[in-house]
Write a structure and sequence with these properties.
alpha/beta, Aspartate Aminotransferase, domain 1, Aspartate Aminotransferase, domain 2, seven-stranded mixed beta sheet, three-stranded mixed beta sheet, 14 helices, 13 strands, globular, disordered C terminus
């Protein structure tokens, strides 16, 4: 990217940031947070903005274990794990390994640090990297730290498996491993990678390895909460899974799940941030251990069912309202396309004033003309609150479209929703 284009990009991001603050839709503050509700400027709002999909952050068991570990071990562990490892951390990693079918697991202070520890180590000079266009920014950033400049970095259109295969064919005779890097759940549009096609490509091309960031998929999906993709990939020996202990997990920090001892050992020895960044503090380890207790019990499936019922109910209501929803029916993230930035501000502000908090998706997270509403569903939320939110969105969405002299079919065309999606059965 040239210096001119980079400066233009920064200026565009700054303009969107400043205009969003002026419209009072970003950089808002709350002085209360109790799970299902919080207050902004004295107005109580139903919480449709949290990525804590399983509502574990207020679970008494996590809070109790966090307090217990704080009292016993203090507020931090200020020693590099290269020299001295707290056994409560190794116990947590062993518990996570049990959840992920015995795979090697390392825990980091953040998922971004997990990426920057693992990717520059596992990708070798003889390899190649292919990125999905919508893979998380932190994954893309970590690939820029790969030491060898001989490693090609290509990008495919979002979920375009035909394009991916054409790149594989181009690279397979020159490179030992071809890494496809994607998300398990895409955080803006709330869609999934095409797993069946990925499995087919991995069966067809032994060189194909995948690196998946499933930060938005763990706990609420999969056996023992292993996420949206772990159980579905047939060639786990060629998958490295990165994810978080934030969001659904109810704690904080990142983790990497390795398919074999070779990758695990290399990152242990050479993964810089694993050694020099602060390890997780005892209060967070305590909360995470409490979550693993839940994941290894039948209760996790009851929780997943509770959230799944809310997801299905919300998606059906959004479809019935004829709103342009881009998200997968099974995903707790729902993206409603708007397009125009200023119109997005108006709709979002009206919804906030009605007592419902959700997020607005803005550039650079989405294209400058692909502004949308982004709501997150969690177990705190009731079916009645979901119904109330959808009614408010429907009212303000279509009223604002009329005020701005915009028609729904133009929005659908902008987001390539030429045909109305099938309703949830």
């Amino acid at each position: 990217m040239s210096n001119i284009h980079y400066t233009q990009l920064l200026n565009s991001i700054s303009d969107v940031y400043d205009s969003g603050k002026k419209a009072k839709v970003v950089c808002l503050e709350t002085d209360s947070w109790n799970g299902p509700f919080f207050q902004i400027d004295g107005l109580e709002m139903a919480n449709f903005g949290s990525c804590g999909y399983m509502a574990l952050e207020k679970d008494p068991r996590l809070i109790s274990r966090s307090i217990e570990y704080t009292k016993k071990y203090g507020t931090q562990w200020g020693v590099s794990r290269t020299f001295l490892i707290a056994n409560i951390l190794t116990k947590l990693e062993a518990r996570l390994s049990e959840i992920f079918d015995g795979a090697g697991v390392f825990v980091f202070s953040s998922t971004s640090l997990a990426h920057t520890s693992a990717i520059p180590i596992i990708v070798q000079p003889q390899d190649a990297v292919i990125l999905d266009k919508q893979v998380h920014f932190s994954v893309n950033t970590a690939t820029q730290l790969i030491p060898s400049k001989e490693v090609p970095r290509l990008m495919v259109k979002h979920n375009n498996m035909n394009m991916l295969e054409s790149f594989i064919q181009r690279l397979k005779d020159k490179h030992e491993k071809i890494w496809y890097m994607a998300d398990g759940v895409y955080s803006m549009y709330g869609d999934f990678p095409p797993v069946e096609e990925l499995n087919s490509l991995m069966s067809k091309y032994e060189q194909l390895h995948i690196y998946v960031d499933d930060a938005h998929g763990v706990v609420w999906g999969g056996k023992n909460g292993t996420g949206s993709i772990f159980d579905k990939i047939q060639h786990k020996d060629r998958m490295v899974l990165a994810t978080t202990m934030g969001k659904s997990f109810g704690a904080i920090g990142g983790m990497i799940v390795f398919p074999d001892k070779q990758f695990y050992s290399k990152v242990q020895k050479f993964g810089g941030p694993l050694s020099y960044s602060h390890p997780l503090p005892p209060p967070i380890i305590g909360a995470a251990m409490a979550t693993t207790d839940i994941l290894l019990s039948p209760e996790i499936y009851e929780m997943q069912k509770e959230l799944s019922d809310r997801i299905s109910y919300c998606h059906q209501l959004l479809e019935d309202a004829d709103l342009p929803v881009l998200s997968d029916p099974k995903c707790p993230i729902k993206f409603i396309g708007i397009g125009n930035l200023e119109m997005g501000y108006k709709i979002h502000r009206k919804i906030l004033d009605s007592g419902y908090y959700l997020n607005i998706a803005l550039f650079p997270a989405v294209a400058i003309n692909n502004t949308g509403l982004r709501l997150s569903l969690n177990r705190h939320i009731s079916l009645r609150q979901i119904e109330g939110l959808v009614n408010v969105i429907k009212e303000h969405y279509f009223t604002t479209l009329a005020e701005e002299d915009t028609e729904l079919h133009k929005v659908r065309r902008l987001f390539k929703l030429h045909k109305r999606k099938n309703k949830v059965s």
